[in-house]
Write a sequence for this structure.
């Protein structure tokens, strides 16, 4: 049996990004409290949402950091319905409490929202994105100076190869996914 390298876990990736944030925050934060928006494409009970949230809050659980969390819920509701609601929610928060110092964007639809509305809604606030499955979307975002982040690499080929290594007599492997773009390999 061959031993294969396993992909990094999501919390390790988020930790790396947040370390980058702390470097940015120490040079950019002029106010005593750093306001951070965590924008998630999904809802709080979605499979990856709790681990994303836990990693974010563990690293940001420090004095003088204020975290606002918005779950867009685009797995259960259409983007056309959720984007305007998200826009209004963020606009109200900014009007009530001032702009953010940093935005953390989790998964494809949150990044799509920010690419479309961030300039008019939030100005030049830096964005760190993660959990992105769409290479072209991540590439588009990374071309903008205030965006940086990582792709979530699907390891379908590696997992299939591992299955054949573990079960040498396996003749056929069937892969079942949902029809959403997020689960298709790039």
């Amino acid at each position: 049996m061959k031993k294969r390298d396993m992909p990094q876990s999501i919390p390790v990736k988020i930790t790396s990004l947040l370390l980058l944030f702390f470097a940015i925050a120490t040079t950019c934060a002029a106010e005593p409290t750093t306001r951070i928006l965590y924008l998630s494409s999904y809802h709080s009970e979605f499979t990856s949402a709790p681990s994303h949230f836990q990693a974010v809050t563990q690293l940001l659980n420090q004095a003088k950091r204020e975290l606002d969390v918005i779950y867009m819920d685009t797995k259960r509701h259409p983007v056309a319905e959720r984007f305007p609601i998200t826009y209004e929610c963020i606009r109200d928060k900014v009007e009530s409490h001032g702009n953010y110092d940093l935005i953390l964007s989790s998964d494809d639809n949150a990044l799509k929202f920010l690419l479309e509305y961030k300039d008019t809604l939030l100005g030049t606030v830096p964005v760190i994105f993660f959990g992105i499955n769409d290479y072209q979307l991540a590439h588009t975002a990374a071309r903008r100076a205030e965006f940086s982040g990582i792709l979530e690499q699907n390891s379908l080929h590696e997992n299939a190869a591992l299955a054949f290594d573990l079960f040498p007599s396996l003749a056929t492997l069937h892969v079942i996914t949902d029809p959403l773009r997020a689960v298709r390999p790039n």
Notes: The radius of gyration is 18 Å.
